[in-house]
UniProtKB/TrEMBL annotation:
Gene Ontology MF terms: FAD binding; proline dehydrogenase activity
Protein name: Proline dehydrogenase
Organism: Verticillium longisporum
Cofactor: FAD
Keywords noted in UniProt: FAD, Flavoprotein, Oxidoreductase, Proline metabolism
Family per similarity comment: Belongs to the proline oxidase family.
Pfam families tied to this protein: Pro_dh (PF01619)
Length: 245
């Protein structure tokens, strides 16, 4: 299996493409992380992440896992590809592994994203601790508050000449399009604008069904966001027709 993975990584590197390894339930995640870090050690060189591991903020263990991976990247001199999500395996992961409240998960997500942007997470990057390693940050979320705050922090640090990390955003195809468009427009007003991506599934319905069901469970608050999207679309239509916004 590793021979095949190395071949995929070499092909991706030759095409200047990135490989983002998705998270799984905790039955499999430790093995996935180990493989991802082994590949990152080889291919995430020259200050650029080709391989990303996915970190789920809803897990109580994520802070310790990330601390370990940051230390490894700092000591071994490679770039850590850090894709951050809230999490999607509520139905299969043990409840005791997950933060007690959604607010705790939100706080964990924001602490990691803001810490990475400020190049200080825990003792990594702090005075007296290990230097903060090279990190490429990929924030996958539909949470407007988290992403707008991250964008503002990133742009502020760029403008002030403070150290920060490479930043990109992503949402699912067909979800939170108004947020995606807003992030693009915000980037157009600044330097070193983060990339904004839409994630699309590819395959037959049978192949994609489990993935789509997890995304639906993960985004159960989509109905509450639909009113925001409706208002955004209505505002855009009125503007294009020449009415006052």
């Amino acid at each position: 299996m590793m021979d095949v993975l190395h071949e995929i990584c070499r092909r991706a590197r030759s095409k200047n493409a990135r490989i983002i390894i998705d998270a799984e339930s905790q039955h499999y995640q430790k093995g996935i992380c180990l493989v991802g870090m082994e590949l990152a050690h080889i291919y995430n060189r020259d200050g650029c992440a080709r391989i990303y591991n996915t970190y789920q903020a809803y897990l109580k263990s994520t802070a310790a896992t990330l601390d370990s991976h940051l230390k490894q990247a700092a000591e071994e001199g490679f770039t850590l590809g850090l894709k951050l999500v809230r999490g999607a395996y509520m139905s299969s992961d043990k409840r005791s592994l997950i933060h007690d409240t959604k607010q705790d998960t939100d706080n964990a997500y924001n602490a990691i994203s803001q810490g990475a942007l400020k190049c200080e997470i825990g003792r990594i990057g702090a005075p007296g601790g290990l230097p903060f390693p090279s990190v490429d940050l990929f924030l996958a979320s539909h949470n407007r508050e988290s992403l707008v705050a991250a964008h503002k922090t990133h742009q502020s640090r760029v403008q002030l000449g403070l150290p920060t990390v490479q930043l990109d955003f992503a949402q699912l195809h067909g979800m939170s399009d108004d947020l995606s468009f807003d992030l693009v427009q915000m980037g157009a007003r600044g330097d070193h604008a983060p990339g904004v991506y839409k994630c699309s599934t590819w395959g037959t319905l049978g192949q994609c069904l489990a993935y789509l069901m997890r995304r639906a469970a993960e985004n159960r608050d989509a109905v509450s966001r639909s009113s925001d999207e409706y208002r955004a679309l209505k505002k855009e239509v009125r503007g294009r027709l020449g009415f006052r916004r």
